[in-house]
UniProtKB/TrEMBL annotation:
Name recorded for this polypeptide: Major facilitator superfamily (MFS) profile domain-containing protein
Transmembrane annotation, as ranges: 21-51, 63-80, 92-114, 120-136, 148-166, 178-201, 281-303, 318-341, 348-368, 380-408, 420-446, 452-470
Major facilitator superfamily (MFS) profile domain span: 25-474
Keywords assigned: Membrane, Sugar transport, Symport, Transmembrane, Transmembrane helix, Transport
Superkingdom of the source species: Eukaryota
Membrane topology recorded in Swiss-Prot or TrEMBL: Multi-pass membrane protein
Record-level Gene Ontology MF annotations: symporter activity
Cellular compartment(s): Membrane
InterPro entries to which the protein is assigned, alphabetical: MFS_dom, MFS_sugar_transport-like, MFS_trans_sf, STP/PLT_plant, Sugar/inositol_transpt, Sugar_transporter_CS
Family that this chain belongs to: Belongs to the major facilitator superfamily. Sugar transporter (TC 2.A.1.1) family.
One Gene Ontology term, aspect cellular component: membrane
Lineage: Eukaryota, Viridiplantae, Streptophyta, Embryophyta, Tracheophyta
């Protein structure tokens, strides 16, 4: 018994070691997400001082805050192709470099037009970052810890938001002309550390296999898998998915034709002629990204000083101090979520999260409506608004926030993953841009309380969609997702000819499948 116990303990050592290395890779890649988080957090407070210094209207403030989401589309569209071309690792360097330049331009902005140009450049970097971080993390993570590790981008978004809030509070005491410029310019600092950290990261093994670099992929998998056996199985699955014969020696690198590399024919297979399974995956990814933003999270986080002011709180220091509490709450609960994703699963967390968001938004709507119809400060309404916002960001961070990035990065087949994930990011950013660029106009049209009742209705629709359409993916390998999303037997055979996944076998219809692959 003692000898058996010793053997069992020794067998677990590689798992702990390799999981730590995969975790380190996930942390470094996910640091790209801190760029978006910092921009969201810092702009919520900096906008107060920018409006005073540059004498801009509420409409211009809306556009300034929300336009970066539209600008990020350029980066998101380019990131899928770029990562298939130069690899996931160096795409992260591109993201960091572009955001670094954008942050400097915003920090040195002398007028509204100059500031908008800086946000255009920073937005491209954010688009790159949002797409590549979850894709890289999903591809280096073992199945046993993929939910935990792939939630890291959302952890760093929340950490960035908190840092942005703290930056607001720290620099708010400086002169009006200098304070907001330092708030924005300091955002260049994380980019430098990120670019240096990439030097310690391996390339994605799936991308290496798609390039025919089998020896390099095998080396990386040995370092990031739970066990040597898992590393071997993962490599075989990746070779099959790339159309590489299973008997190809892994000690060699082999030439891969352009048609087998990532990016070729992806647009056709995703949008023009998707199979029912691919269509379901695409709708799932787009749907979860849409509802993440349409339920109002950026309105709460980006406009929290405005919301607290409408609730009856006055004074820049008080408003910024309360936003720090919001950022701290988001960060704490996203950390809790990282430990639950692989234990509880995606669907239970998602449904619980959105259910809590619905009631929190209703409470916020009630509190703001009461405050809006009462002259002076209504203390119970202030308490309800503050507690409802904290509850809302807590429920969001424990489910819908991290699950969106985890789920959308893991459900696509290897060949479609980079550009499929990019499509989700595009929907995410467009929706966020619309929400943030219309919030002030919306609450002026239907009242501040009515805005959050509207978001509660959207969240209720999201709960119905998630309950009826999304499948549980906890613990599955990335190569097992096809069966989960409803491939028929015939579709499995066709998919076997197209992506040659290990689990699917070809028995009939080889000619039709080969023709479809062309």
């Amino acid at each position: 018994m003692g000898e058996a116990k010793l053997v069992s303990e020794e067998a677990t050592l590689p798992k702990r070691r390799n999981t730590r290395f995969a975790s380190a890779c996930a942390v470094l890649a996910s640091m790209t997400s801190i760029l978006l988080g910092y921009d969201i957090g810092v702009m919520s407070g900096a906008a107060i001082f920018i409006q005073k210094d540059l004498h801009i209207s509420d409409i211009q403030v809306e556009v300034l805050l929300g336009i970066i989401n539209i600008y990020s589309l350029v980066g998101s569209f380019a990131a899928g192709r770029t990562s298939d071309w130069i690899g996931r690792r160096y795409t992260i360097v591109v993201a960091a470099g572009i955001f670094f330049l954008g942050a400097l331009l915003m920090g040195f902005a002398t007028n509204y037009i100059f500031l908008m140009f800086g946000r255009f450049v920073a937005g491209i970097g954010i688009g790159y970052a949002l797409m590549i971080a979850p894709v890289y993390t999903a591809e280096v993570s073992p199945a046993s810890a993929r939910g935990f590790l792939t939630s890291f981008p959302e952890v760093f978004i929340n950490s960035g938001i908190l840092l942005g809030y703290v930056s607001n509070f720290a620099f708010s005491h400086l002169s009006l002309h200098i304070g907001w410029r330092l708030m924005l310019g300091v955002g260049a600092v994380p980019s430098v550390f990120l670019a240096l950290g990439v030097l310690a990261m391996p390339e994605s093994p799936r991308w290496l296999v798609l390039q025919g670099r089998l020896a390099d992929a095998a080396y990386v998998l040995d370092r990031i898998s739970d066990t040597p056996e898992e590393a071997r199985l993962r490599l075989e699955e990746m070779k099959s998915a790339a159309g590489i014969p299973s008997d190809t020696p892994t000690a060699n690198n082999i030439p891969i034709s352009r048609t087998n590399r990532g990016g070729s024919g992806v647009w056709r297979d995703l949008y023009l002629h998707p199979t029912p399974a691919v269509r379901r995956v695409l709708i799932s990814a787009i749907g979860i990204h849409f509802f993440q933003q349409a339920s109002g999270i950026d309105s709460v986080v980006l406009y929290s000083p405005h919301v607290f002011e409408k609730a009856g709180i006055s004074g820049d220091n008080a408003l910024l101090g309360m936003t720090v509490a919001v950022g701290f709450t988001k960060t704490i609960f996203i950390l809790v979520a990282t430990f639950l994703l692989d234990r509880i699963g995606r669907r239970p967390l998602l449904l619980t999260s959105v259910g809590g968001m619905i009631f929190s938004l209703m409470g916020l709507g009630i509190g703001l409506t009461a405050a809006d119809h009462h002259e002076g400060k209504l203390m119970w309404a202030v308490g309800v608004c503050f507690s409802s916002i904290l509850a809302y960001v807590a429920f969001f961070s424990i489910g819908l926030g991290p699950v969106t990035w985890v789920y959308s990065s893991e459900i696509f087949p290897t060949r479609l993953r980079a550009q499929g994930a990019a499509a989700g990011v595009v929907v995410n950013r467009v929706t966020s841009g619309i929400i943030t660029m219309t919030f002030i106009s919306l609450y002026k049209a239907i009242s501040i309380g009515g805005s959050f009742f509207l978001y509660a209705g959207v969240a209720a629709a999201a709960w119905v969609f998630f309950y009826g359409y999304l499948r549980e993916t906890r613990g599955m390998t990335l190569e097992e997702m096809g069966k989960l999303f409803g491939f028929s037997k015939e579709e499995m055979e066709e998919e076997d000819e197209i992506v040659k996944t290990k689990e699917m076998t070809t028995k009939n219809g080889t000619g039709e499948a080969a023709a479809a692959a062309l």
